[in-house]
Specification:
The complex is a heterodimer of chains A (191) and B (324). By secondary structure, chain A is mainly beta. Chain A has one helix and 16 strands. In chain A, a hairpin with a 2-residue loop joins strand 2 and strand 3. Classes of the chains: A mainly beta (191), B alpha+beta (324).
Chain lengths: 191, 324
């Protein structure tokens, strides 16, 4: 297995630390002129999503982690796994478990494209695009004329996600939602 | 559309103009004091044995195609000592030096070093001159003096001369795994405390000389005994927590110098690093007689960072390693 020495450390590098795949966020080189050099490194553990700070003596190395990010189309769920397919024309499919899908489950729409992080060839995490377009399946009746200001109400989307929307939104409309904040952005012209 | 390679300098044109002013000011400083400017090779036959410095090997031969060798110099020290032995009197140099693997917010593998030697000076005399130079250019307050021992006691809570090895390692386990500290050695542990606790604390302390290093960190300084402890006549200046220079009352004893080179290579072997050939020309110069002198090397990129209030060396270097 390939390994990286401290002098190859840089943001974005995927390495194994304590058996877990991590991504290097920051690497600071510290050295007194006549003394031992150290690398002060911040990493995100891709399993727990926690940020770790570790120090390495310069010249120490870490094994590389076989982690790659791939664009994949969401196909369907069988209740236990969520199935994704590579968009590169290979039609290769990958089943992601509930842990990998995590909170992204509420943004999963069939045929939309997601970023699937593979660790040793198996889905580790699934990330949604920043914006998704989803249909409203349930909300209180719209209030006519109230298109500009005031008030909001919950609306349930086709994926099960619940977002706060303006009062004028009605069932059947398609909304653009920011997945990072979980907030309503605007209505999308219905097709 | 393809991404064009980054061709623009990182440092602003203003910073580059300040660099030029700094050079002119420094040359004026030394001209006024009768110190001779010299130039010595950037590419030398020998590298250094210092276990914490990695040189960059070159492949230079007098005839094209012949197998060559040599090293980009990590400092002009050895060549300048050969000039001193030849009777140069006080000398200074603005040198480009190279240290492999050193890239960070305060490091670039190629950097500018101001190095000067003063025959007849002790470390204390030279500290006074360093103060004149730094205060004169930066307009900062005159540096205070703190011994290495006081600095570590005050800011890291350990007496570097008395703390037990196990206790020292335990302190380092705040940042390192126990198996990492085992191979670090006593000085490596002290270096960690210096970088992680002392240096940040010095940022708020005003300019300060750290003096009287442990004998094991003497490098090329004379050593003398004080109250039963052997101390190196070595000093470093920190301004705003940035290590700015390193100076010695110079070792001029050829036999002791050879012993230290051999000891460096022993440490290198233990650390799995390649041994470095000892610079026999330097030893010959020491045998012939390098006058009693003090010398110091000061990082010019860092001096300019301090002048401009920058905390990143890329602000003052036109083309750092990645875009050089």
């Amino acid at each position: 297995m390939a390994s990286y020495s401290t002098n190859e450390f840089r943001g974005g590098l995927k390495v194994l630390l304590d058996g877990d795949p991590c991504v290097i966020l920051e690497n600071e080189f510290v050295k007194p002129g006549k003394g031992q050099a150290f690398n002060r490194v911040r990493l995100r553990n891709l399993m727990s999503n926690r940020v770790w700070e570790r120090t390495f003596k310069s010249g120490e190395s870490l094994e590389s982690a076989d982690v790659i990010e791939q664009d994949m189309e969401y196909l369907y769920t069988d209740g236990e796994f969520w199935h994704f397919m590579l968009t590169d024309g290979s039609f290769e499919q990958y089943p992601a478990d509930a842990k990998a899908v995590g909170d992204t489950v509420k943004w999963l729409k069939e045929q939309d494209v997601y970023t699937v992080t593979l660790y040793n060839g198996a889905p580790l995490t699934v990330s949604p695009p920043n914006f998704v377009e989803l249909e409203v399946v349930d909300t209180d009746p719209g209030m006519k004329g109230d298109t500009a200001q005031g008030g909001s109400k919950p609306a349930t989307l086709s994926t099960g996600a619940v977002v706060n929307v303006p009062l004028f939104i009605t069932i059947g409309e398609v909304l653009k939602v920011d997945t990072r904040s979980g907030e309503y952005v605007n209505r999308v012209k219905s097709s | 559309m393809t991404d064009a390679p980054e061709w623009q300098p990182r440092a602003s044109l203003g910073a580059l103009k300040s660099r030029a002013s700094q050079s002119a000011w420094l040359r004026g400083f030394f001209a006024q004091r009768g110190v001779l400017e010299v130039e010595t090779p950037v590419l030398g036959r020998h590298g250094v044995t210092d276990p914490n410095l990695d040189g960059i090997a070159a492949n230079a031969a007098p005839v094209a195609g012949a197998s060559g060798g040599g090293w980009l110099q990590t400092s002009p020290e050895y060549h300048m000592k050969r000039l001193l032995a030849a009777g140069s009197g006080p000398i200074y140099q603005v040198a480009r030096v190279f240290r492999d693997g050193e890239r960070g917010s305060r490091h670039n593998p190629e950097f500018s070093l101001l190095e000067w030697y003063r025959p007849g000076f002790t470390d204390t005399d030279l500290m006074a001159e360093v103060s004149d130079l730094v205060v004169g250019w930066l307009g900062c307050e005159r540096p205070k003096v703190l011994s290495y021992r006081d600095a570590l006691e005050r800011f890291a809570g350990v007496d570097p001369f008395r703390v037990a090895d196990t206790e020292l390692r335990r302190r380092c386990e705040q940042w390192l795994a126990p198996e990492q500290t085992l191979t670090l050695g006593r000085d490596g542990c002290l270096d960690l405390l210096m970088s992680y606790l002392v240096e940040p604390a010095l940022a708020g302390f005003g300019p300060v000389f750290i003096t009287a290093y442990p004998e094991s960190q003497a490098a090329l300084a004379k050593v003398s005994e004080l109250d039963g402890v052997r101390l190196a006549h070595r000093f470093e200046l920190y301004v705003g927590g940035i290590e700015l220079c390193n100076g010695y009352w110079e070792l001029t004893d050829a036999i002791e110098q050879r012993r230290r080179f051999d000891e460096d290579n022993r440490v290198r072997r233990l650390a799995g690093k390649p041994e470095m050939a000892v610079d026999s020309a330097l030893l010959a110069a020491l045998e012939a007689g390098v006058p009693d002198c003090a010398g110091v090397a000061l990082g010019l990129d860092r001096l300019l960072m301090l002048k401009l209030g920058s905390n990143n060396i890329a602000d003052v270097v036109a083309f750092p390693l990645e875009i050089a």
